[in-house]
Amino acid sequence: MDLTFTAQELQFRDELRGWLRRNVPRDWASQRSGDSMEERFRFLRAWQKTVYAGGWAGVAWPKAYGGRGASLMEQVIFTEETALAGAPPLANVLGLGLIGPTIIAFGSAGQKQRYLDRILSGEEIWCQGFSEPNAGSDLAGLRTEARLEDDHFVVNGQKVWTSYGWAADWCALITRSDPNSSRHHGLTYLLVDMKSPGVEVRPLRQMTGESEFCELFFRDVRVPVENALGKIGEGWSVAIGTLMHERATLGAQMQVTFRRQFHRLAELARSMERGGRRVSEDPLLRQKLAQSYIEIEILRLNQMRAITRQSQTGVPGPEGSILKLNWSELNQRFQQTAAEVLGPYAQLTAGSEAAVDSGQWAYSYLRARGNTIEAGTSEIQRNIIGHFVLGLPKSY
Ligand SMILES: Cc1cc2nc3c(=O)[nH]c(=O)nc-3n(C[C@H](O)[C@H](O)[C@H](O)COP(=O)(O)OP(=O)(O)OC[C@H]3O[C@@H](n4cnc5c(N)ncnc54)[C@H](O)[C@@H]3O)c2cc1C
After folding, report:
1. Atom of ligand 1 nearest to the CA of 129
2. Which of 91, 92, 234, 371 fits a disulfide with 44 by CB distance 3.0 to 4.6 angstroms?
3. 115-133 pLDDT tens trace
């Protein structure tokens, strides 16, 4: 593993830095702290359009599908530089990171032509309809039914915890198309237009106060047969493709976010006072800050290892589970340290005059709880590592 950049990568980085300097909206986070979730999303969607127009969306996607055809390392540089420049995130998180790559891997030429460019531009937002009330960790227990009638599937069932369901134009939906099948067999992965008659979206409120995810109900929803991604009845392998990308890509963004947050926290520890001395002079908190710094650095190195492997094999491997475990558990410990550094200020949310950094710390603390559940719980990641990396017997 070589961590030094090549001349080409340095040129890529400098060109990107120049573009970010000219285009990143100043102070966007504090100016938008009072926005509703919908207003903020509109802003992020417009930002994605700017990134797309600048030729920077889908950096590692093949040129044939509207990407830049860059290396995975350049994708990492893109993630790092956009975070370091304080750029807004891209709106179509799931389309770019999970569903687009799955369409590239399994889609027909017509599907690639139809969907990929609109994912990059943010013209069409995607959600991921996998989990059901009785099928989360045990996804193979899913029951949403897709009955083939002539040239359409008729879909009936329920999904839950669907992030961005309220904003999505399309849903990557995993269904049971063979009523006599069980577990991993007889499943079909469908691309479903969220405006189809019979689709109902009900927001679920989270402890952050937002409704980032939803319940989805499907009642006799007609989906054209050409919207099956991959072979009919073989949707399980397509779904696994999506999950591998989910585990491998989320960590990259998080590592840079944590680094930025960490440096801000260290700055706050130096400037805030408690009990007659600076917080940074508290021996216990100094230990915890140093520990967070070490863990964030380990995450960066683990991510480099995963990228190296992915550039060699072309697909993310089960080490994605190590990254997922690493960033999600690290974030909960880190946010706890932040809460101890900030003391009572840690609880002040956006809108409160005395809130530090527009209430970002209170939000991050609460949001971190979901990290060890989304994209597969910590127990499931350990099962995957135990079985696929260590060769231990399966847990079920
Ligand atoms: C913020 C957030 C966003 C999400 N976004 C989406 C989304 O966009 N699309 C989507 O489809 N889903 C989404 N999810 C759902 C997520 O994938 C599921 O919540 C997750 O897979 C766990 O499933 P479950 O909630 O049904 O819990 P369960 O599977 O019922 O698990 C309950 C507990 O049992 C443990 N457990 C279960 N099986 C085993 C086992 N074999 N060995 C050891 N322990 C086990 C689990 O680790 C957990 O602690 C999201 C969840 C969150 C929190």
Report:
1. 11
2. 91
3. 999 999 999 999 999 999 9
Residue 232 has pLDDT above 70, yes or no: yes
Q: With a 6 A CB cut-off, is 383 part of the ligand 1 pocket?
A: yes
246 is known as an active-site residue: yes
H or E element in which residue 278 lies: strand 277-278
State in Å: Cα 132 to ligand 1 middle.
Answer: 10
Strand 145-149 with 199-204, pairing: unpaired
Confidence (pLDDT) at 121: 97
196 φ/ψ sector (left φ>0, alpha ψ -120 to 50, else beta): beta
Given a contact cutoff of 8 angstroms between Cβ atoms, the answer to whether 190 and 173 are in contact is yes
CA distance 104 to 230: 11
Give yes or no for a contact between 184 and 159, defined as CB atoms under 8 angstroms apart.
no
What pTM, to 2 d.p., does this model score? Answer: 0.94
CB-ligand 1 contact for 386 (6 Å cutoff): no
Sign of CA dihedral 66, 68, 70, 74: negative
Active-site residue, from 81, 234, 246, 319: 246
Which residue has the least CA distance to atom 12 on ligand 1?
Answer: 131
